[in-house]
Design brief:
This protein is α+β, with helices and mostly antiparallel strands. It has 6 helices and 7 strands, in the order ββαααβββαββαα.
Amino acid sequence: MAVVREPSDRSSGPEEQEGIGESDGFQRLWTPHRMAYIKGENKPTGPGEDDGCPFCEIPKGDDEDGLIIRRGAAVFAVLNLYPYNSGHLMVCPYRHVADYAELDDAEALELAQFTQRALAALRKASGAHGFNVGMNLGTVAGAGIAAHLHQHVVPRWGGDTNFMPVIGRTKVLPQLLRDTRALLAESWPQD
């Protein structure tokens, strides 16, 4: 949960800290949940599926706890724990593969179909104006978890890039992930 402090508030966090100095006039939006991402918590320890790969672990649990929106035969759709925008999801093969070229025909087909259905679900649920869809293949390309292929589907709206992410490097998300998961699962097109 984010906590906003007024400019006149001299605290540097949710708890009052005495003697810190004079106010600089800035408001603070505290997002302590982001620290897990910054510290790399729950990141794999290596490239193997037994090295703590979250995309291998998530499907072993239930959909709500794992934020899984829909399961297919070869792939599944799951919300991103650290979304760029509300509704940011990923389509992942169950099989632990790093590169798009490693997918077999059935996996590639279902990944494409799930991406189409994700677009439809996000349009229905949120009225997204557009999307960023893509994969970062390899660490140098920006993949946070390079050992397990995943395709991002990020909904976009006019004006969603404002001063918060540009200047403040902070995203304000209007809905809890569990609520977003439930809404998208309900909006997912019937197979």
